């Protein structure tokens, strides 16, 4: 209690420094007066009395300093003075300061950037009211249609579940860029997501301006109304608040802008990272009722409900609902906290990045520490004088720590713009599928963390130089002309261990990065089941006044005509693409009954003739669809290899029958290669291909394959399309490779950041090695001179220095490889077709480090071998 | 360095105890009065500089063991008078008994004859 009270007083004393000094002087005056009075009373004459009083009191300054120490935190009291001193010292050694500050800026800047990047995903709750009670409810399948629900199921769940206070949903199959926007200059393509009633109310999102949707706006045939994303509003509407209440042309119909969504809520960055969603509109559930699984569900749990109890409730409620409404698709429920669903698979990669950037900061500390150690040797005498003059060792330590903090703060100040730049570049990449990217800001909190990191860093890297200088023995340091040998050895040991530490860290980073790069290369190497290179996807659109049959006929004609072009190798229509959104349907052998859960299923594509070739897929057996597979002819089907095996295990599936979703039986006319469906690192799955001319939907994406560059054939293709019908427009053109790129974008992002970090670490390690070796050479000029005078050749000297360097590097590499072996376990789950103990990666890392060490040690070795013996001995 | 620090600590702690005891013995007193009193009682053997007393006074105040207030001295001089607080009284008791047992132990150790116990 009394200790706490004392601390409080001490800290307060810091603030009222001057007032307390005045109080001391007042007391001293009174003291001298009283003492003089005493002497006078004893018969001393007044002048002599005052003199004796002062003598008995002692020196004013000493007494005051004494009292300051007692009343306050003495270290902090001297801060201002030391600060000025530190500043002057750093300015004096400009070269060293600039290098140290630059290194620190990169280290601290990278840390701030990564921190800002991971904070929205890992450290902050989602930008919703009470985000902890929001739950993502998925169906049991892995495809998008497998993970979503029917409208009726959603309605039954939201009506009957007791664990949830409210439910909402959005239409998971909304099209990216499939809507046309008119009224803002040239028509452009935009993405609109349909949300179920009370979507924003359940999440707790309030519009930045305007209003949310009204209940009647969810009814069929209600006038069109939208909410604008904050991004679109600033990008395309000039952030003009007056647009609320006006109309835009969407898909050739006027749509009222009801409001603008807040900057904190970006639908795409939360639910569909790597894409852009410009508008939100009400989903008319009434018209969606006959559809299949299309809704992604979000529920808000009742207060006090745990996710376990909610899970348990839905497990019994689900079968009950199906028993009451047997017409519903079979479904199951998988519950995840919404936060977890959003951060999902990015959690670990981001943590690994955070760890890596922390290691970078460590290596930065070691490096700057080493630089300062070199400087401290030069300053040993200065400090010896200060010690001899009575400065406390604590003070000297404090002085060095302060210099460190000043240095790190400068680095931090420079690191902030760097962090800002990094995050801006990352954020600008809209196809980067990292959740909550729109929420990444280098904000006050990040700055606070940066300040903390800078101060911590400064303290850490000044510890070693501080220890060394505070241990200086003033006498020997002052008399020592040629620098002490014992102190020198201990000093060299300190510097060497720092360098070894740097090599260890660089080694861990390099191995980790190497393993991830290998995984990445392996991933890009996987057999996708299709060959994206050389293919382009054109999204076609016909004017609205055509009937479906007319549109189908037009597209069929377009596909046939494009296929006929000499510059085009293959072309075909499809309604879905791999690595994009997808749906899966059940399939079975007619007449066979399947136990629950064993019925085969496949990702379903509705395609036209030529699609398989245009995608570069391999037809294993049978034939492609043909124009002759029209309505009214025998229903036909193409399946992927694994599906063929699942339907007819051990038999030939070609020519046999299969029944898709209770439809009439189709004949299997072809078997094609399996295709990677959800991501590159997930095993290839089963696929069902139906031909659109036999009903079941219609396809708008024309995949065109050509060996010519896109610039050569796209113009020809477009001209051909216009010549068929002028109203036939191409609304979107994208290389098939874009799908692959988007799918691997998070991995590419992590790998490229890690590569940057590793290269920086390698650079720092080589700088560290160079510094230590050349310092060692300088220290031993005389010794080398003696050796050479006694007959050592320059080669011997070079080798001697280089051998020392390699010894350092070897120790670092051995320890580093061991540490990397342990660290490999952390990133094990991020690897793809690569062992965490991949020998090649480890060997290459060791070789690379040895090579760098050789290069860094060679220059000083060369210098050493060129020392003229006479000059060295005269020194 | 370590020896120096511990000697200083001992001196400080002891001075604090002497100040507390003085205030206990003669009641509220100003800094000069306390310093004079200690000098007189100790036969001028203890304090080198009277100024050092103010570090002790500020420390004791911060602990809340003594309280200070400006007032008038007997001969009408302005001076800051310190008095013992209730917790200061408790502290004095605790420290006195601690000091006694400490010196007792030290004394006993010092009195052991060369050659060890028989």
Q: Keywords, please?
A:
heterodimer, A: 875 residues, alpha+beta, 4 domains, six-stranded mixed beta barrel, 23 strands, 13% strand, B: 118 residues, Arc Repressor Mutant, subunit A, three-stranded antiparallel beta sheet, 4 helices, disordered N terminus
How would you characterize the overall build of this protein?
The complex is a heterodimer of chains A (875) and B (118). With 875 residues, chain A is α+β, with helices and mostly antiparallel strands. Chain A has four domains: 2-73, no CATH class; 140-332, no CATH class; 346-525 and 743-874, no CATH class; 535-741, no CATH class. Chain A has 29 helices and 23 strands. The longest helix of chain A has 43 residues, at 737-779. Mean pLDDT of chain A is 85; it is low at 481-486. Chain B has 118 residues and is of the alpha+beta class. Chain B has one domain: Orthogonal Bundle (Arc Repressor Mutant, subunit A). Chain B contains four helices and three strands; from the N terminus they run αβααββα. Chain B has helices spanning 2-26, 31-41, 53-63, 86-111; strands at 29-30, 66-72, 78-84. In chain B, a hairpin with a 5-residue loop joins β2 and β3 (78-84). In chain B, α1 packs across α3 (53-63) and α1 (2-26) crosses α4. Residues 1-10 of chain B have low confidence and may be disordered. The chains are: A alpha+beta (875), B alpha+beta (118). The A-B interface holds A 2, 5-6, 9-10, 13, 24, 26-28, 30-31, 33-35, 37-38, 56-60, 62-63, 66-67, 69-71, 393 and B 1, 12, 30-33, 35-36, 48-52, 54-56, 58-59, 61-65, 73, 75, 77-80, 87.
């Amino acid at each position: 209690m009394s200790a706490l009270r004392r601390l409080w007083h001490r800290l307060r004393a810091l603030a009222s420094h001057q007032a307390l000094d005045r109080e001391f002087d007042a007391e001293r005056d009174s003291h001298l007066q009283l003492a003089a009075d005493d002497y006078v009373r004893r018969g001393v004459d007044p002048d002599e009395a005052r003199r004796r009083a002062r003598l008995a009191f002692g020196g004013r300054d000493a007494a005051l300093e004494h009292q300051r120490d007692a009343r306050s935190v003495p270290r902090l009291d001297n801060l201002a003075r030391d600060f000025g001193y530190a500043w002057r010292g750093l300015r004096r050694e400009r070269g060293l300061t600039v290098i140290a500050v630059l290194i620190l800026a990169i280290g601290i800047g990278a840390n701030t950037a990564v921190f800002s990047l991971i904070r929205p995903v890992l450290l902050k709750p989602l930008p919703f009211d009470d985000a902890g009670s929001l739950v993502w409810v998925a169906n049991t399948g892995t495809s998008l249609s497998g993970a979503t629900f029917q409208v009726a199921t959603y309605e039954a769940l939201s009506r009957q579940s007791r664990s949830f206070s409210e439910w909402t949903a959005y239409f998971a199959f909304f099209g990216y860029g499939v809507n046309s926007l008119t009224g803002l200059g040239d028509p452009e393509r935009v993405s609109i997501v349909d949300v179920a009633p009370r979507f924003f109310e359940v999440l707790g999102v309030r519009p930045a301006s305007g209003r949310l949707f009204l209940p009647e706006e969810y009814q069929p045939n209600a006038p069109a109304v939208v909410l604008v994303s904050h991004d679109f509003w600033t990008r395309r509407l000039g952030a003009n608040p007056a647009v609320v209440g006006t109309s835009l042309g969407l898909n050739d119909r006027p749509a009222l802008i009801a409001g603008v969504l807040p900057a904190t809520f970006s639908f795409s960055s939360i639910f569909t990272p790597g894409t852009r969603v410009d508008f939100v509109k009400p989903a008319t559930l009434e018209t969606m009722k006959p559809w299949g699984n299309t809704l992604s569900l979000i529920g808000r749990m009742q207060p006090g409900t745990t996710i376990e109890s909610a899970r348990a409730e839905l497990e019994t409620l689900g079968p009950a609902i199906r028993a009451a409404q047997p017409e519903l698709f079979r479904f199951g429920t998988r519950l995840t906290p919404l936060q977890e669903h959003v951060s999902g698979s990015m959690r670990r990669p981001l943590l690994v990045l955070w760890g890596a950037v922390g290691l970078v900061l460590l290596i930065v500390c070691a490096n700057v520490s080493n630089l300062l150690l070199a400087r401290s040797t030069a300053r040993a005498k200065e400090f010896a004088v200060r010690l001899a003059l009575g400065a406390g060792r604590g003070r000297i330590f404090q002085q060095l720590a302060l210099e460190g903090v000043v240095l790190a703060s400068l680095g931090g100040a420079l690191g902030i713009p760097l962090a800002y730049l990094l995050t801006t570049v990352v954020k600008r990449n809209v196809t980067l599928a990292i959740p909550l990217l729109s929420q990444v800001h280098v904000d006050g909190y990040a700055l606070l963390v940066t300040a903390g990191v800078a101060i911590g860093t400064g303290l850490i890297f000044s510890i070693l130089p501080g220890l060394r200088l505070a241990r200086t023995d003033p006498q020997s340091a002052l008399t020592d002309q040629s620098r002490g040998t014992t102190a020198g050895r201990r000093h060299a040991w300190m510097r060497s261990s720092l360098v070894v530490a740097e090599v260890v860290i660089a080694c861990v980073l390099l191995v980790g990065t190497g393993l991830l790069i290998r995984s990445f290369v392996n991933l890009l190497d996987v057999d996708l089941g299709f060959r994206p290179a050389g293919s382009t996807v054109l999204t076609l659109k016909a004017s609205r006044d055509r009937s479906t049959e007319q549109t189908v006929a037009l597209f069929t004609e377009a596909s046939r005509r494009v296929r006929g072009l000499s510059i085009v190798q293959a072309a075909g229509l499809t309604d879905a693409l791999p690595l994009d959104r997808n749906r899966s349907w059940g399939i079975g052998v007619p007449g066979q009954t399947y136990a629950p859960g064993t019925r085969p299923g496949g990702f379903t594509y509705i395609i036209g003739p030529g699609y398989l070739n245009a995608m570069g897929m391999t037809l294993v057996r049978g034939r492609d669809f043909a124009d002759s597979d029209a309505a009214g002819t025998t229903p036909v089907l193409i399946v992927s290899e694994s599906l063929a095996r699942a339907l007819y295990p051990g038999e030939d599936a070609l020519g046999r029958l299969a029944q898709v979703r209770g439809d009439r039986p189709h004949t299997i006319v072809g078997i094609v290669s399996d295709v990677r469906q959800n991501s590159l690192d997930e095993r290839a799955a089963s696929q069902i291909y139906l031909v659109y001319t036999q009903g079941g939907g219609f396809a708008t994406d024309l995949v065109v394959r050509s060996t010519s560059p896109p610039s050569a054939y796209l113009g020809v293709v477009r001209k051909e399309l216009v010549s068929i019908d002028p109203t036939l427009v191409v609304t979107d053109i994208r290389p098939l490779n874009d799908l692959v790129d988007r799918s691997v974008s998070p991995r590419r992002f992590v790998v490229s950041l890690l590569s940057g970090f590793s290269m920086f670490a390698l650079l720092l390690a080589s700088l560290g090695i160079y510094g230590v070796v050349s310092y060692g050479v300088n220290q031993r000029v005389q010794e080398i001179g003696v050796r050479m005078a006694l007959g050592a050749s320059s080669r011997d000297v070079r080798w001697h220095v280089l051998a020392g360097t390699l010894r350092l590097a070897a120790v670092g590499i051995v320890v580093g490889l061991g540490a990397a072996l342990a660290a490999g376990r952390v990133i094990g789950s991020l690897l793809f077709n690569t062992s965490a103990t991949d020998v090649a990666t480890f060997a290459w890392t060791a070789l690379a480090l040895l090579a760098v060490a050789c290069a860094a040690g060679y220059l000083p070795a060369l210098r050493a071998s060129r020392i003229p013996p006479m000059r060295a001995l005269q020194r | 360095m370590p020896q120096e620090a511990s000697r200083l600590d001992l001196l400080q702690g002891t001075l604090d105890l002497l100040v507390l005891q003085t205030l206990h013995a003669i009641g509220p007193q100003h800094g000069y009065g306390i310093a004079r009193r200690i000098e007189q009682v100790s036969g001028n053997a203890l304090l080198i500089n009277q100024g050092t007393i103010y570090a002790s006074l500020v420390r004791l105040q911060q602990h809340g063991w003594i309280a200070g207030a400006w007032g008038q001295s007997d001969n009408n001089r302005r001076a800051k008078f310190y008095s013992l607080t209730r917790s200061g009284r408790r502290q004095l008791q605790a420290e006195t008994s601690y000091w006694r047992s400490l010196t007792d132990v030290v004394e006993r150790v010092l009195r052991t004859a060369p050659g060890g116990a028989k």
